[in-house]
Amino acid sequence: MKQQMQALRASSIQTILDCDNAERLEALRVKYLGKKGELTGILRQMGGLSAEERPAMGQLANQLRSDIEAAIEKRKGELSSAMMEQKLKSEALDVTLPGEPVHLGHKHPMYNVLDQIKDIFVGMGFEIVDGPEVELAEYNFTKLNIDEGHPSRDWTDTFYFSEDGKILLRTQTSPMQVHAMEQKSLPIRMIAPGRVYRKDEVDATHSPMFHQIEGMVIDKGITMADLKATLNLVVEKIYGEGTVTRFRPHHFPFTEPSCEMDIQCHKCGGKGCPTCKGEGWIEVLGAGMVHPKVLSGCGIDPDVYSGWAFGMGLERLAMGEYKINDLRLIFENDIRFLEQF
Ligand code: PHE
User: Fold this and answer.
1) What is residue 190's three-state secondary structure?
2) pTM value?
């Protein structure tokens, strides 16, 4: 038995110290010290020893066990520090190397114009609100006093989701007027920029998706004078002081009276040039005093409150500002185009 233990000591300690892998080391521990291990196998013979021999053998076996354990611990420590070293080596980072250049993008030209407009309105105490692009016909049309049968409701112009024509992609940001009036407490000063959709073929001036900015003020004693003064100020901030505007009568079902606002061509000063197509004026937006029917439909008493609203096309504005002659360029996201701004 003593010889068996000596043999085990000789073979095990060396094998352990030569082991180069943590899993294999654990397997060795089981092989030597486990319940069915070699040392246990030897100890089973203890029963056959005399009472005098037994303590000495027991002591020898304990010594062997703790020596094997110590060898395993030692090797385990060595292996894990070797692994750590290996890891540190492979993950070494030379912080003195020059970095990879990061290619920074920039804002889309249309969003530059939008941000400029937002800044102007926020500066005047307006709130910026956001609303759904998938809209109820009730909000896109009915509550805006656009009756059944009105041409803008036509299936050839509007993207409807359902056969019954109740759900659609909003064709204008004007439903945001209704949402604001229904949800907010008075007075209201808001702008609502966002995407709108119409069944238009793509060409240099049309796209089935484009952007509008809706604006609205509701308070006591609001008049057309407030509308004109506010929009004149905005135009001067965008196009420079002294920019001349003109308000032409127009018709929208949800405003009364309604108008369209033109600016005198900032390129030719009104003489007529390619930018204004020889007109001297550039149409910028539609606007008007919020119709009393729309107000009362939203639970606002038109005898106490009044308000104005406008809606303008964002692409058109950006095209004017950056002298872009084709609407498609704004959506194609060709880097050669975008990097010019
Ligand atoms: N929604 C109208 C359009 O798309 C513009 C508009 C908005 C007119 C608000 C008046 C008031 O043409």
Assistant:
1) strand
2) 0.71
